[in-house]
Amino acid sequence: MTEAATDKYVGQPIERKEDARLLTGNAIFADHYPTRPGTLHAAVLRSPYAHADILSIDTSAALALPGVTDVLTGADVRALSEPFLMVLKLPLDEWALAGDRVRYAGEAVALVLATDRYVAEDALEHIVVEYRGLETIVDPEKAVLDGAVLVHEDAGNNIVSERKFTYGDPDAAFAAAERRISITIDYPRNSLTPIEGFVVVADYDAESGLFDILSNFQGPYTGHPVMARSLRVPESGVRLRTPACSGGSFGVKQAVLP
Question: Are 69 and 113 in contact (CB under 8 A)?
Fold first, then answer.
């Protein structure tokens, strides 16, 4: 055996190396991202329903506001892009904006582009969406039963992914055990909420066809191919830059989808 290391770290006041630039204001956060003159600001209209059909969307009043340059809906997204890449066995399409149905509260329904952030956010109140509420289900055990309301009807059930791992012979081990204990634990919903939200600054050069994207996204190697496919360009047509400081993430800024 080799001798144990003489340096002991557990329980010692180890000096942190990354804090100084954060505490002295020298780190790069989203408000420091450079933007070109004329950069538009986006605001997202989200669904108040957990499950509903979208019957109609009227964006005319929002488009009439001074400073609003465009309002995109699910129909526009389907005409301009492709669905996101998925890692599930079932052929489910996930788009940047909902189409004819929303499947969770807060799903993006429309996107306003304006010359000012506050104009964009105010314009959301002028978009009129007609919904038809559908049955919802929040209990995962009830969601997998036959006859349960389906989130994606084409899937046939609510089990979008199932993987089983077996190590050793657990059945034999339980059969030989002197005592067996069974317990059911309800794990509550939780959410990761960093102080700095998701931020994206995107620039498109029509001459070269290059998208230059600056974001505090923490999963650039997974996000890059997803962006390229969705934008209908080769991966060489998307430059994704992620600064060292994400403004907090705890893992939530690694996912392509909510």
Answer: yes
> Does the structure show a pLDDT above 80 at 256?
no
pLDDT digits (tens, 9 = 90+) for 190-241: 888 888 988 999 999 999 999 999 999 888 888 899 999 999 999 999 999 9
**130 and 145 both lie in a single domain:** no
One-letter amino acid at 79 equals A
Q: Which residue has the tokens 């009830």?
A: 142
Phi, psi of 114 (to 5 degrees): -150, 165
Contacts of residue 235, Cβ cutoff 8 Å, sequence gap at least 6: 224, 225, 228
64 and 114 co-located in one domain = yes
Q: How far is CA 38 from the centre of its chain?
A: 27
- Name the phi and psi angles at 61, rounded to 5: -65, -40
**Is residue 14 a part of any domain in this protein?**
no
Backbone angle region of 147, left / alpha / beta, with phi > 0 → left and psi within -120 to 50 → alpha:
left
The alpha carbon torsion through 49, 55, 58, 62 (nearest 10 deg) reads 20
Q: How far apart are CA 38 and CA 35, in angstroms?
A: 8
SS3 55: strand
